[in-house]
Description:
It is a single chain. By secondary structure, this protein is α/β, with parallel strands linked by helices. It has one domain: Alpha-Beta Barrel (TIM Barrel). The protein has 10 helices and 9 strands. The strands form 3 sheets. A 4-stranded parallel beta sheet has the order 3-2-1-9. A 3-stranded parallel beta sheet has the order 6-7-8. A two-stranded parallel sheet has the order 4-5. The N and C termini lie far apart (about 40 Å). 3-phosphoglyceric acid (3PG) binds next to strand 9.
Amino acid sequence: MANAPLHPLPAFHSKVIPVIVISHADQAVPLAHALLKGGIDVMEITLRHAAGLAAIERVSRAVPEMCVGAGTITQAHELAQVRSCGARFALSPGLSSDLVQAAREAGLPYVPGVMTPSEALQAKAWGHDLLKLFPAAQAGGLGMLKAMAGPLGDVRFCPTGGISPANLVEHLKQPNVALVGGSWITPLEWIEHQRWDDITHLAQQATQLTQQAQADRV
Length: 218
Ligand code: 3PG
């Protein structure tokens, strides 16, 4: 791994990162406002749809108070691409040296994905101590996070995949969980039907559950 510096994640308040698939870039700015209204100041716009790049660009230009990141990064060249669109961080579903290196070269804060202790060890050796656990439920969920807390005590996770309002609090209370990701706040169909108030409502619910988890953790 070449010696380019690692970049820490930008500051944002929310502990829940909405994972977003968006099919029309012109829906990105109203979506960002709907999330902000519900107390969520971070969003992961995935590259799963061709509109993803333009959506990132629009939010980054029009909604500076929203910390917009890029998700589903699977190819090294996408890291420079999303950075030039204004993404402030990026995440991948998995781990590879090419992606880790490209994120460093792009100067972009980056969260690689892992599913096993071996992958977590490799990511740590490359300097990453915040990792996306994906797919979290299939990897073992809370049990897996608890098991990794001992031997990998200095690694923090962003479990994603299978998180919902029903299990959000217990995940956020887990000491090695820094953040969680999930798609439940921003269903594609709701975005396409511009159901902004409904999205704000789910964002508010996630914000309240986060506050509950933080109060329980103290
Ligand atoms: C992702 O797309 O990163 C995850 O699959 C999100 O999982 P979820 O749909 O279970 O929240």
